Amino acid sequence: MVDRGLLLVLSGPAGVGKGTVCKALRERMPNLVYSVSATTRNPRPGEVEGVNYFFKTKEEFRRMIEQEELLEWAEYVGNYYGTPRPFVESMLDAGRDVILEIEVQGALQVKKKFPQGTFLFLAPPDLEELENRIVGRGTETEDVIRRRMEVARSEIELMDHYDYVVVNDEIDCACERIEAIITAEHLKKDRQVHKYMKWLKEVT
Ligand code: 5GP
Description:
CATH topology of the largest domain: Rossmann fold
Structural class: alpha/beta
CATH class of the largest domain: Alpha Beta
Number of helices: 8
Distance between the termini: 22 Å
Shape: globular
CATH architecture of the largest domain: 3-Layer(aba) Sandwich
Bound molecules: guanosine-5'-monophosphate
Strand order of the largest sheet: 2-7-1-8-9
Strand content: 15-25%
Number of domains: 2
């Protein structure tokens, strides 16, 4: 029997660098399975269907909600984002570690459904730096930037619901911290003990 994989939820305020850290982490850990989200927002230049997102109309997205195809979903700055459930569950069942890169409302929903998941809060080194990153992305209008900042402030307050806080001061350092967490999670007694119990039963 294969042990179930870890469900890792990488979340945190808008603009903190979740996408960049997740991308770097996937390059360092090719066995980590990345869950591609569904969204109703328009593709940005260079984004590819099925790689960055599954791009959906609002109607298609609502249908996915009704048919309970999403593990979680959230409305974020006027668009829907959600995690397709069947893919995540099949990968976990196959013993693969799966990472979700999602905003905080969705992360809280996953925590209710999957309390055994590992919840990582990616934190900015300081709030001024956070603001620079939101503005610095340069692809959004002023109104969207302002709303993203408001969301970011309230998101910081949600840190308390997470298992780990990973400061994103430098991408490589943040990745190393996450790799250390993944290793530690695999070594947790509860994930190991059944093998020894089985052996004990066999030898007695
Ligand atoms: P962006 O539009 O910049 O790609 O993503 C906006 C926000 O949506 C980011 O904070 C990103 O982490 C979050 N996001 C991406 N996919 C999902 C998802 O499946 N569920 C939730 N709840 N948030 C998501």
